[in-house]
Design brief:
By secondary structure, the protein is mainly alpha-helical. Helix content is about 65%, strand content about 5%. Helix 1 packs parallel to helix 3 and helix 10 packs across helix 15. The C terminus is likely disordered.
Length: about 500
């Protein structure tokens, strides 16, 4: 997946590593230097050009084209097989769908026909009874009238025929209306049947039962009674702890760290941190008199969040490498790749670019920027909106800065929990065009199998703040003074289950 560089590009990379100012000035001024000119400047700067940089004429003009043509042929063959399999799969699916639709139509027609026949048979007894009763009463009255009034026989005959005709027509119309009404009722009932099934299967009931808000409301009164949270399990059983949004005080947080034996000295020596995830900072963190204790508390809260997101990125990176090297990929794997391309804002399905962007943010840099932008967890943006890294927004939900100029409309992006802020920050550095140099330098370190260390990448973050190089100098100072490089190799303790702390 590593991008192949030309001999000229390798020389430029070498000049960038050794910080050759003359070549940088030419590149910055967009002047194209020839390969010979670059070599001359490097030799003047006493920089040795590795022998493996140059390639032979035979290799470049014969072997490489042959290898490329061979790989293209193999790729064409694979794509042809994939297209064939895809066509066969589509034909099979079309056949099955057609057969399924035909069967459904036939079954529906047969049911409708049977229902119509049953309704017609049910009408006949009702129709006969109605006609019998109605005609019986009419004829009785008519004949009584004829007998009593001694009407003209011819006139009486016409009257009887007219009455019988009206009765028959009225009866047929009335029963026909009932028949069609029954059909419409049956159709309505039939249409509503699957909706009843769907509502019975809806998972919303389960979701509502799992909502953390219910737990929070149930726990709130207990927090007021007790300042110190109690763990439902023993210390040894705590693999992962998630602190809900309980507005914990700093004293409670410190006691909690003491109970679970969370010490930065052990973290530095063992290179392991317990997965304890806070949803927010304690609001009275600034009340601590000891600056050292305040900083340690801040690091203890933020460190597991950063390490967890980095490990998630490393897992995705490993999966991408495996999937991209496979000859055949499943539909789920293709869907996963499409999702990651959208997440990292990679166009044209470039997997090489995706691998460059899908990488970790050094823990020391993340901690230093979080401390700088949030005032060690005490700023208004950090307390009210869980905004650790001071990301701007013009459209989303945010908090307006108090010292914002009247002609500016930006806000500080707010988040529901602290971990969401960490994830957004990492995605920002991995996707935004302002941090292209950061990603390029990180990719070079990856290509040379070197460790990604914060101090080697801070100089590429001058676009993060308006102060530029002054901002990067501040980051370097924070990293060195607080020994944040010690946390670079830190990993999460293997967690087997997820528990919650109750207070």
């Amino acid at each position: 997946m590593k991008k192949k560089l030309s001999y000229r590009d390798k020389l430029l990379e070498l000049a960038h590593i050794y910080d050759v100012k003359e070549i940088k000035d030419y590149v910055r001024s967009k002047k194209n230097l020839t390969t010979g000119q670059i070599e001359l400047i490097l030799r003047k700067s006493k920089i040795i050009i590795p022998k493996d940089y140059k390639s032979s004429f035979f290799k470049d003009n014969f072997l490489k084209p042959y290898s490329k043509a061979k790989s293209d042929l193999v790729e064409f063959k694979d794509e042809t097989i994939k297209d064939k399999n895809r066509l066969i799969r589509r034909a099979t699916n079309f056949k099955e769908d057609t057969a399924r639709k035909f069967n459904n139509v036939f079954v529906s027609f047969w049911k409708t026909l049977g229902r119509a026949g049953i309704n017609f048979l049910n009408i006949l007894p009702k129709l006969g009874k109605t006609i019998y009763l109605f005609l019986g009463n009419i004829f009785t009255d008519v004949f009584n009238g004829i007998y009593n009034q001694q009407l003209d026989p011819k006139k009486a005959k016409n009257v009887i025929i007219g009455i019988v005709t009206v009765v028959v027509i009225t009866t047929i119309a009335f029963n026909g209306k009932n028949y069609f009404d029954n059909i419409e009722v049956d159709k309505t009932v039939e249409l509503k049947k699957p909706e009843i099934k769907k509502e019975a299967k809806k998972p919303e009931i389960k979701k509502e039962a799992k909502k953390p808000e219910i737990k929070k409301e149930a726990k709130k009164p207990e927090i007021k009674k007790e300042a110190k949270p109690k763990l439902e399990t023993k210390k040894k059983d705590i693999n992962e702890a998630i602190l809900p949004n309980l507005n914990l005080k700093t004293e409670t947080v410190l006691n909690l760290f003491k109970d679970v034996e969370y010490d930065l000295g052990k973290v530095r020596s063992q290179k392991l941190v317990k997965p304890i995830y806070f949803t927010q900072f304690p609001r009275d963190l600034d009340a601590l008199q000891s600056t050292k204790l305040k900083k340690e508390t801040f690091i203890k809260i933020v460190l597991p969040l950063i390490v967890a997101e980095n490990e998630k990125i490393l897992a995705d990176r490993k999966k991408l490498t495996i999937v991209s090297n496979k000859k055949y990929t499943t539909d789920l794997e293709k869907q996963w790749i499409r999702q990651k391309l959208l997440e990292y804002k990679v166009k044209k399905g470039d997997l090489n670019e995706l691998l460059i962007r899908m990488d970790v943010i050094p823990t020391s840099i993340a901690l230093a920027q979080a401390a700088k932008e949030s005032g060690w967890g005490t700023s208004r943006f950090a307390l009210e909106g869980n905004a650790i890294f001071g990301q701007w927004t013009w459209s989303g939900q945010g908090i307006a800065p108090l010292d914002r100029d009247s002609n500016k409309k930006h806000k500080i992006l707010k988040f529901p929990i602290l971990r969401a802020s960490v994830k957004a920050y990492q995605n920002n550095l991995n996707t935004h065009k302002s941090y292209l140099k950061f990603r390029e330098k990180r990719s070079i370190l990856r290509g040379k199998n070197k460790k990604i260390v914060g101090l080697e990448l801070t100089d590429t973050l001058n676009n993060y703040a308006q102060t530029g190089s002054e901002y990067t100098d501040t980051l370097n100072q924070i990293i060195k003074q607080n020994r944040l490089l010690d946390f670079e190799p830190v990993r999460l303790v293997n967690s087997a289950k997820e528990i919650e702390l109750s207070s």
